[in-house]
Amino acid sequence: MNIVIADDEPWVRTSLVSMIYEMEASWEIVGEASHGRELVDAIAQWKPEVAVVDIRMPEMDGLEAIRVCRELSPHTRWIIVSGFSDFQYAQQAVKLGVTEYLLKPIHPEELEKAINTIALHHEEYALLLNRQFENELFSLTHGLTALETESIYSPLRQGAFLAAIYYFDGVARNDELENMHGEFTSRVRKLFPSYLGHGVNLSVYTWTGAECIAVGVYDPTRREAVKSVSSFLKHTEEVAAFFRQDNLAMTCVRSEVCLNYKAYVQHFQQIQTIACTRVVFGVNRAWPFRDMNLRAQEEKELRLSKMILRLAQDYKNKLYLSYQNTLAELEAHVTAMNTTPFSDRLRREIEDFVRIVFGFTLQGPVGEGWIRQWKDQGESLLRSGREPVSQDLINQVLSYIDLHYKSNIGLSQMASEMNVTTSYLSTLFHKKTGTTFIKYLTRLRILQAKELLCHTNMQIQQVAEHVGYYSARHFTKLFVDMVGVYPSEFKKRICQPDQDPSREK
């Protein structure tokens, strides 16, 4: 762990340095400060795991400096060393979240015990802060909150972004693919403790339901943070290799570095546009965005990829009419392309994709031979039963939400139960309701929370848990964004409806 020491007496700093370096564990002292403003600068620069701070210092006292530094480095844990046993100081320290309050003269064993206590809880604390970060990223991604509402010190506003986006393709049933998606996410999440630290936040989530994103958000000024995120993403590729099978492809697109959230959003949209070229570029591999983007410049191959991928989605969702329409487009495009013979590599990659996703091997010449096999495969959709009725599907989803909104539910879970793809169900849901699944669910939960705040004596934490949120902090942020006031303020004013300032956005 990295440590910063702050005391206005040089001999005290020297003594503390000596004590720490003589401890059995190897801690690194990355900075020293002789007054409060120097401490603020050191915390901003190093964002250490631990800061050992004196209270009485010139320019800015230790308590005020801690108050400022908590915004700059939420991970940092604080140990106060002071010659004053005044209860008022101790009380302020507790309010600031100080871990230990040690009186001078300090005994080496006391200091070592305090630092070891922090070290033991460091991983748990880092995971807690990272869960808060994941909630904030998820809400921001799905339009539940705005970037402007985040703290100016939030990694979402100050961090750089680097991601690996995974796409699942396979002949397996939708529920089987969803289970694999969940297992992959779980295994990636287990990697977090090895890479979390100051300047690094990690998340694994889906944006549209059609992909799994492993992303690291880090302080670009810290070399070790950049290295940690790169290693984490490389490790996720090793996890993906474990899942690849004859009937399941996991293809990764490595993003470029994005220096802010808005650039990350734009870059993700670029990746989504060209990700279909895995059909002709090759599945079951990890491709740098730059290489895949270069291949996507071939307009004919890009269109071919989109059509084959759309055909695969129609097939999995049992959409017979849409399948036949897509196949007619594909036939015309392949015929036009076939004036120039397909390269061996292009043919091989398409055959590989079809084998994994459709479950049969393309044979014969490119063109009429391929189209005939796809037509035969399409006829099996007629024999397998009628197409799912879109309105029936959405009615089922809405009924399920009404019954289970308190639970941890997701659209992908329902899609697997209905045996359709998440992206298809997401498109239907938006078309039928005019909003996304996440926004609909959040609105319902907040409306239920308002009822509970108005008609029960539940505490905020209890209300949050009752409507499906296990973090009161996350619930409060969503409530404020949607209603315009804090839950506690809403509860106080609800008895005076005419004066209630709440407004739903």
From TrEMBL:
4-aspartylphosphate PTM sites in chain numbering: 54
InterPro entries: CheY-like_superfamily, Homeodomain-like_sf, HTH_AraC, Sig_transdc_resp-reg_receiver
Signal peptide start and end residues: none
Entry keyword set: DNA-binding, Phosphoprotein, Transcription, Transcription regulation
Record-level GO BP terms: phosphorelay signal transduction system
Gene3D superfamilies from the UniProt entry: 3.40.50.2300, Homeodomain-like
SMART domains assigned: HTH_ARAC, REC
Domain HTH araC/xylS-type: 395-493
A Pfam family the protein falls into: HTH_18
SUPFAM superfamilies assigned to the protein according to its UniProt record, in alphabetical order: CheY-like, Homeodomain-like
GO molecular function, one term: DNA-binding transcription factor activity
Response regulatory domain segment(s): 2-119
Domain of life of the native organism: Bacteria
CDD domains: REC_YesN-like (cd17536)
UniProt key word Transcription regulation: yes
Keyword Signal assigned: no
PANTHER family, per database record: ARAC-FAMILY TRANSCRIPTIONAL REGULATOR, HTH-TYPE TRANSCRIPTIONAL ACTIVATOR RHAS
Protein name, entry field: DNA-binding response regulator
Source organism of this protein record: Paenibacillus selenitireducens
